[in-house]
Amino acid sequence: MNKTLQSMICLFSAAIIWGSAFVAQRSGMDSIGPFYFCALRSLIGALALAIVFLLTDRKASLHKTAAADDPSAKLALEKERQQERKTLIRGGLICGCVIFIAMNTQQIGLVSTDAGKTGFITALYIVLVPIFGIFLKHKTGITTWAGALLGAVGLYFLCVKNGFSIQPSDLIILAGTLFWALHILCVGHFAPKVNVIKLTASQFFVAGVISLAVAVFREPISWDALTGSSVAVLYTGVMSTGVAFTLQALGQKHANPTAASIIMSTEGLWAVVFGFLILGEKMTGRELIGCGFMLAAVIISQLPVPARKSRQEEIQGENPENVD
After folding, report:
1. Residue 226 CB burial class (10 angstroms; 0-12, 13-18, ≥19)
2. Which of 249, 267, 231 is nearest to 115 (CA)?
3. What's the pLDDT tens digit per position in 246-286?
4. C-alpha gyration radius of the chain
5. Closest CA to 232 of 40, 46, 12
6. Is 64 exposed, middle or buried (0-12, 13-18, 19+ CB in 10 A)?
7. Are 262 and 147 in contact (CB under 8 A)?
8. Spatial distance between the Cα atoms of 120 and 20, rounded to a whole number of angstroms
């Protein structure tokens, strides 16, 4: 299996888990505030990832130590570890702060917005990532831009009502998509340079600590609230936070950030599916049209871009007898 296919499998798997997690996020809000919810899921996810890292890193550390038999090799290994540690701290802080904002704005919006609709609004980052990518000199093909345009049209049908009105909760979720897009670019930058499990664990530890600090001053908490939301918190903490975001980081090791964002935006489709099957949520005809446009955006954006012929190839095509 080549690395590109492995990346696609990882990213699609993450999208499916995130789609189902919107259901847990919405149901969990019945008994706990958004900041406490995000704090608990983040810290549980960070703990789960730390355990996974401790179990998997022991063999890798033994292998590296055995490989460094001479003093010069040991010195080089130590310098490599110091550099990775610095990059990890920087990446954990940056990605953690960004995802703190993205995650909490989404959770606040879920108080008044259906799980399926939230999933599709969040998918707006398929438009934002290629735009941000321009400033980072990422190459973006015509099919990706076509997909992004269709995604924007789909978002219009999904969110904007007659008379150009929009619900406040929709606007909050829309604001959060800016930071989901930034998060994809941040992960794409740091993931190839450090251990992805360490990066994912550190970013959620940072996000969890900040969320908890805000929750202490803004939201009441009780034992009943904790037990009432325990299933939703555990699912989002272990599966959505721990497993899915690790799959994202693994997938982005060998994927273009724009392509990765489009694959992961299918979480909106899965959010609608799981919202209908588990919560019984239904969407209007206008909203379903918007979902259709966004699904088409994902498909079109994945089509290969036809290679442009060079001027020499065009001349040879017009005059085949001139070929040497």
Report:
1. middle
2. 267
3. 788 788 777 776 677 677 777 777 887 888 888 787 777 88
4. 22
5. 40
6. middle
7. yes
8. 13
**Residue type at 303?**
L
Residue with tokens 């001053």: 217
Each residue's pLDDT tens digit, 18-30: 888 888 888 777 7
Instruction: Give me the residue label for tokens 């990518």.
Output: 133
Half-sphere exposure of 307 (CA within 13 A, CB side): 5
Where do the DSSP E strands lie in 27-97? Answer: none
Task: Tell me the HSE value of 18 on the side-chain side, using a 13 A CA sphere.
Answer: 27
- Span 140-160, pLDDT tens digits: 678 777 877 887 788 778 767
Instruction: Answer yes or no: are the C-beta atoms of 85 and 170 closer than 8 Å.
Output: no
No. of H helices and E strands in the chain? 15, 0
Contact 186, 102 (CB under 8 A): no
pTM of the model: 0.74
Count the residues in the chain: 324
Token reading at 201 = 């664990």
